Amino acid sequence: MALSIWTCSHRISYNPFILILVVFLLLWPALKAQASTSISLSSTSLEFGEVETNGYRDIRVTLSILPSTVTQVVATDYNSVFSISGTDCQSGLSDSQRTCYVDVRFTPTTTGSVSHTIVLNYAAIDEADTVTLTGTGIVPGSVTAGPLAPFTQEKDNNYSTSAVIITTCTSGNASAALQRDCNQLVQAANSGDAQTTAALNQISPETATKSSQVTHQSATTQARNITSRMVELRSGASGISVQGVGLNIDGKYLPAGQIVQSSLQPLGMGASADETFANSKIGVFFSGEIAKGSRDESALESDLDYKTYGITAGVDYRLNDKFFLGAALGFIDTKAELSNSNAELDTRGYSLSFYGSYYLEDNYFTDFSLTFGKNNFDQNRNLNFVLGGSTVNQKFNAQYSGTYTSILLGAGKDIQKGPWSFGPRAKLEYTRSRTDTATETASDATGPGSGWVTQIGSNTQDSLLFQLGARVSYAHSANWGVIFPYAQLDLAHEFQQDAQVINAHFVQDPASTQIKIKSDKPDRNFLKLNLGTSAQFKNGTSGFANYSTVLSNSVWDSHTLSVGVRLEF
């Protein structure tokens, strides 16, 4: 079939199929791009809410491209107030890539409402999308907890959490679950529901401060065990003077000073150069520790109870009569419970230590150690409350890790008076601990309360602890060996370990509005008391038992029992 068109002097015939084919070929590039690319944005209107003029807030726009023929997305028309803080859309999209993101940042420089637009350009198909941006700059410190304020119990961490809840609830950007939980909490507060206080206590991610505290406890546990071993090495290398004290073994009298050179003494004894006992060059030790402690509730932190079990095993080598080097492996298992927030933190950690002890003239000595440790945390907190007739029963879990490094330097002198030994001690210990980011998951991912899951930012803490004290011991012989009861008292001062501010945010808040979680300042001056005994038995085996506690510390209460055994080869 043909189609004829008459002109003034000619008749032109067209085949309609050929005409359709020509039109199709002309339009094919545009039709292909249009048909093969489907671009959708997670939002084309971003509301940043109230942001302090010294801060910022990010909101992520996710682009879905199915299938991908757009090889690059370029954002334009941004400025210093509304900027692009991150994107993976500019490097080029592969055929398999179906999504990319653009993070938009609002950084107010003045107070008041601000509006703007940015353009997302898709060069491959000559198209673009416009995203509308609005936000309000406010005076720093003016964010309020609104109707939640009366239920914060004047706790800074609860107030910070409440202020973020109010900001998120009114932003219009929260996920459906977070918006649901926000609305329920605010409605309960507006109606005067007394359960709002309990709910806020549980919603606040105050457990963020505990992992760094437990990490520091891990470093302290290993340091105690290594210190005990270095004291033993120092005693064995230098000899012990216990004039007038001896032991009858198989009818033969031996001076106690000769017998106890290789005994295990957690806090050390004096030396006498003329009574040095040559130990084996290689020694192996095992020690265990049980620690229990607590802290009272404060305006910033919940009360806490913890128990720690630690084991350390090591081997060392005597280079000469005055110098030892060694290495040790440690393991700790800590369980911490926060009663008010109904939370718990289980920690398992491992450490590797290198240490040494050097004996100087005139009964002076110096010790040193370097420890590297890693902890694995399993954190749980429970949300159990009823608001407005709706029951929240959730368990939030987060599994994450942390590391620490500890450097210890110690020195002292022993003075001998017959069976008595006494002298000054000084020790400086530096510890740096780091805890990784922790992201919670809810036991019921869609149930009431699931919107409150948080992500807790990583944090680093430094501690520089100086101890100055004195020690006294007495050597006593028995028919089974020699026993050395002792006591040591140290005054400790913390130079660092300042109060922390840890950032957290609700996982389902696209703006990641920061919750500032604060910890208490440490008690910088306190006392440490050690009481115990070490013993050398007839068969050459030695051991010790030690009790230590913290005195005059307004924050922490701590009690530790350590035992150990030493073998030589």
Secondary structure elements and their pairing?
Blueprint (H helix, E strand, L loop, with lengths): L2 E4 L4 E4 L1 H21 L1 E4 L3 E8 L4 E10 L6 E4 L5 E6 L11 E8 L5 E11 L4 E12 L17 H16 L4 H15 L4 H9 L6 H29 L7 E4 L2 E4 H4 L22 E14 L8 E17 L2 E16 L4 E17 L4 E24 L2 E24 L1 E3 L2 E16 L2 E2 L1 E2 L11 E3 L2 E16 L1 E3 L2 E14 L6 E6 L8 E4 L6 E13 L4 E10 L4 E13 L1
Parallel strand pairs: 4-10
Antiparallel strand pairs: 1-2, 3-5, 5-8, 6-9, 7-8, 9-10, 11-12, 13-14, 13-31, 14-15, 15-16, 16-17, 17-18, 18-20, 18-22, 19-20, 20-24, 21-23, 23-27, 24-26, 25-26, 26-29, 27-28, 29-30, 30-31
Helix pairs in contact: 2-3
Written account of the structure:
With 569 residues, the protein is an alpha+beta fold. Helix content is 17%, strand content 52%. The protein has 3 domains: 33 residues, no CATH class; 100 residues, Immunoglobulin-like (Sandwich); 363 residues, Lipocalin (Beta Barrel), CATH 2.40.128. The strands form 6 sheets. It has a 12-stranded antiparallel barrel with strand order 13-14-15-16-17-18-20-24-26-29-30-31.
The assigned CATH architecture of the largest domain is Beta Barrel
Number of helix segments?
6
Output the structural class. Answer: alpha+beta
Largest sheet, in brief, is: 12 strands, antiparallel, barrel
Distance between the termini: 108 Å
